[in-house]
Amino acid sequence: MTPAPSATSIQKDTEPNSTQNVFGFPKQDGYTLSHWLQEVQGNPLLNHLTTPELPQSADVVIIGSGMTGTLVAKHYIETWPEKTVVVLEAREFCSGATGRNAGHCKPDQWRGFDRYEKAFGAEQALKILENEHQTWSDLVAYVTPPEDFAGYNGLQNSFGVLLPNGGLFSINPRSTTGGPILFGGHNPGQHELERWLQKNPERRTDDGLAGFEAVTEAVQEFAESQFLGWPAAPTNHPEIYSDRWSGIIALSADGVPFIGELPGLAGQWVCAGHHGQLIIWRFRYYSGMARIFTAAPGLVKLMGGGSWADTRLPEVYQITPSRIKRLHDDYSEESSGLTRL
Ligand SMILES: Cc1cc2nc3c(=O)[nH]c(=O)nc-3n(C[C@H](O)[C@H](O)[C@H](O)COP(=O)(O)OP(=O)(O)OC[C@H]3O[C@@H](n4cnc5c(N)ncnc54)[C@H](O)[C@@H]3O)c2cc1C
């Protein structure tokens, strides 16, 4: 096992004083509907039940029907077809981050070695980049349509525009002509949103926030100043910027996911903290949801009694008592007002 990095080598994703512990269950109503969720409203799969009543028992109970829950279920069933699986979802199918993200599902095969080396050492940094390559292969295998499948235009490219101040607009055109264009990322208006969230920490776990003016204005200003012909286009009226939604991203304090059996809680497993693609936070890039394509099967191997080596994941992704303690101490140190080295 690779030695743990020192606490001082770990960079954090939290703002200096964003130390309030914020917890919350998913909002039962009043959550915003993303572009994707709007498109599937009324689809019977959203509230699908395979049995009329909740089963009294199952071999495995998965909490959450996002990409993590569904991919864990898929790999579990493929590995043990005779076992029973129950997926519990608090709201509609994929109504969490999976159903409300910017849609950039891309492994990050090339970037980040320096940052990972600084945080975790060269060996782990190489393993992380190897994992990104594996993620790319697994993701491509998953989304490649069958040869006889024609007319599918969902796999268009998406773009990221880096701003001089390190911010980013992610742009996702969903159609070649006349279709919606989705803007996401970490744009200039987001700084004001972050300041507002500092003052309203309870809203951090609230995906009912339907738009924030500074963000909307930043998108409008960017589109009108940077897209040729956009200001004079007949479609350019204020309402086109009003289709907005919010979501909750799970970030780990050291920038890599938590995978494995929960320390001290035998039989309970976690696969979480996947971050979001193309979020640039102090010039850091994250693989985001793509990595779930290797994280989920890795977890299933562990659930079946496999060793960490069997997962082929970097050791620094594993949830261990020492990692939790290190992050906790680092976090506490910051919240106590001590300056971090
Ligand atoms: C606005 C936004 C933009 C993003 N953009 C990108 C992007 O462009 N690229 C990228 O790679 N990543 C992006 N992400 C991150 C990405 O969406 C997540 O990493 C990924 O979807 C996480 O999947 P998950 O299954 O782990 O979590 P989720 O999709 O959040 O699934 C968790 C599920 O568990 C349910 N749940 C929670 N608690 C309970 C409970 N107690 N009981 C029952 N059910 C429960 C929730 O309702 C939810 O459906 C973005 C996220 C957001 C919010």
List keywords for this structure.
341 residues; alpha+beta; 7 strands; globular; disordered C terminus; binds flavin-adenine dinucleotide; FAD/NAD-bd_sf
Topology readout:
Layout: H1 35-40, E1 60-63, H2 67-79, E2 85-88, H3 113-120, H4 122-143, E3 159-162, E4 168-173, E5 181-186, H5 190-199, H6 213-226, E6 258-261, E7 269-272, H7 292-303, H8 308-311, H9 321-335
Parallel strand pairs: 1-2
Antiparallel strand pairs: 3-4, 4-5, 6-7
Helix pairs in contact: 2-7, 3-4
The structure holds flavin-adenine dinucleotide (FAD).
Residues 25-26, 63-69, 88-91, 95-98, 100-105, 184, 247-249, 272, 274, 276-277, 288-290 line the site of flavin-adenine dinucleotide.
Describe this structure in words.
The chain has 341 residues and is of the alpha+beta class. 30% of the residues lie in helices and 9% in strands. The protein has helices at 35-40, 67-79, 113-120, 122-143, 190-199, 213-226, 292-303, 308-311, 321-335, and strands spanning 60-63, 85-88, 159-162, 168-173, 181-186, 258-261, 269-272. The strands form 3 sheets. It has a 3-stranded antiparallel β-sheet, with no helix packed on it. Strands 1-2 form a two-stranded parallel sheet. The chain has a two-stranded antiparallel ribbon with strand order 6-7. A hairpin with a 7-residue loop joins strand 6 and strand 7 (269-272). It is globular. Bound molecules: flavin-adenine dinucleotide. Flavin-adenine dinucleotide binds next to helix 2. Flavin-adenine dinucleotide is lined by residues 25-26, 63-69, 88-91, 95-98, 100-105, 184, 247-249, 272, 274, 276-277, 288-290.
